[in-house]
Amino acid sequence: MQLIDRTIEFVKEKLEGTESGHDWFHIERVWKLSLKIQEKEGGDRLIIELAALLHDIADPKFHNGNETLASEIVNEFLTKENVDTETIKKIIFIIENMSFKNRNDAPENLPLELKIVQDADRLDAIGAIGIARTFNFGGYKNNLMYHPDIEPKISQTKEEYKKSNGTTINHFYEKLLLLKDLLNTKTAKQIAQHRHQFMLQFLDQFYKEWNVDL
Prior knowledge:
By secondary structure, the chain is mostly helical.
């Protein structure tokens, strides 16, 4: 069995029973999107594939905010797989620096491999899938779907974002609608156009139905 195949089996096992917006199928979509972007943009395919497959192996929001657990798991797994130290470092760097909440802390001149996996992850957070994942996670946290008197908080600090229990609709303005302009690669930006418009159309329809605007 090849390294990628073994990684897939490892991820499937580790994420069994995970909230469905961050489960194996999310990983699979990000992996496939990463490969589509890599075909156009270049970059080290092995690093991109492994980072995409392992990027949510221990999402901090499901592990009491622990932001080091993922790196520990990835390092242990890849070391056992005899992956060289330099490659492991590059993969862990991607995983530690690609999240939306850490965007203001990320170093400059990010490697292409990180940009590609980050773009793929952000693309999976918008469009029809993004809408479905957002409402699924809102339900998971028992957040309000919408409240007309609760305004979105657009410029949140990392700590505010982590503690946020705002409405699901507000999350569109606090994150999803911002992602199109945070993408790195030309390929991802092209893919994002339709997905972004789809979210705007959804919100327009949502407000009409909420307000019984027949």
